[in-house]
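Quick review question:
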């Protein structure tokens, strides 16, 4: 049985994405250009990731000895995210000539990046829950290996809806931190770009280690998965304040 209330998680993620831009723009009046840079960087990075997954990612892991797969997955997905997300953001920003961007504008870039991800993830969540609730027979078309996991995740208690909302909020902070580091690279040197790439690589490099929890969908496991990202995001907040001073702002 599909729990239709799980769609609230998707609406919550959408609210995180839209709300973050509305709130930041209300208080800081960031120009649309900076949000546009964030949107474009996200789209390009995700597009390339999808192309990679459709072409050689599966082949890479198919030939990889099983004992090395988790380690290689951590390195592969981590570095891929670091170079594509922070790297392309740097390239796009360099073409836009925003080396004089303020801290608030750099934050706006990161918010746009994270907001796009939050909104589209939320829309996907809502669509999936509604689709399987209205047409549960579609579950039979999912390969048997994944079907049990999908069915279990769609039947979780409603209290689980806060986990993905927390995840999107924490991820937004992470995207902001990475974007601020990228913009700071124009002002203070390439070491900040390298730091941003390493930071993003760390975040996504953790994900393969969490797959066993996600493969066993329970309310407890869904919240346990969020702990590393909560820790990283909370640790990033004082770092953001420190970085703001590098812009000459507090």
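Suggested answer, residue by residue:
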């Amino acid at each position: 049985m599909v729990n239709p209330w799980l769609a609230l998680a998707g609406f919550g993620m959408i609210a995180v994405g839209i709300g973050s831009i509305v709130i930041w723009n209300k208080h800081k009046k960031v120009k649309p250009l900076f949000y546009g840079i964030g949107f474009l960087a996200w789209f390009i990075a995700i597009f390339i990731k999808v192309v990679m997954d459709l072409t050689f990612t599966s082949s890479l892991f198919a030939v990889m000895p099983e004992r090395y797969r988790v380690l290689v997955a951590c390195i592969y997905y981590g570095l891929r995210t670091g170079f594509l997300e922070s790297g392309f953001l740097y390239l796009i920003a360099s073409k836009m000539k925003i080396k004089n961007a303020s801290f608030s504008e750099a934050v706006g870039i990161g918010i746009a990046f994270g907001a796009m991800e939050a909104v589209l993830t939320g829309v996907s969540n809502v669509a999936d829950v509604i689709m399987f609730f209205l047409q549960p027979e579609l579950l039979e078309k999912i390969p048997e290996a994944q079907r049990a996991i999908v069915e279990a995740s769609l039947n979780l208690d409603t209290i689980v809806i806060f986990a993905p909302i927390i995840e999107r909020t924490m991820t937004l902070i992470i995207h902001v931190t990475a974007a601020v580091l990228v913009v700071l690279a124009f002002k203070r040197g390439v070491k900040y770009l390298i730091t941003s790439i390493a930071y993003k690589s760390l975040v996504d490099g953790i994900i393969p280690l969490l797959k066993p929890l996600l493969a066993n969908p329970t309310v407890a496991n869904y919240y346990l998965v969020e702990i590393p990202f909560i820790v990283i995001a909370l640790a990033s907040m004082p770092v953001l304040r420190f970085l703001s001073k590098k812009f000459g702002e507090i």
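Why it works: The first helix runs from residue 7 to 28. The chain has a mean pLDDT of 95.
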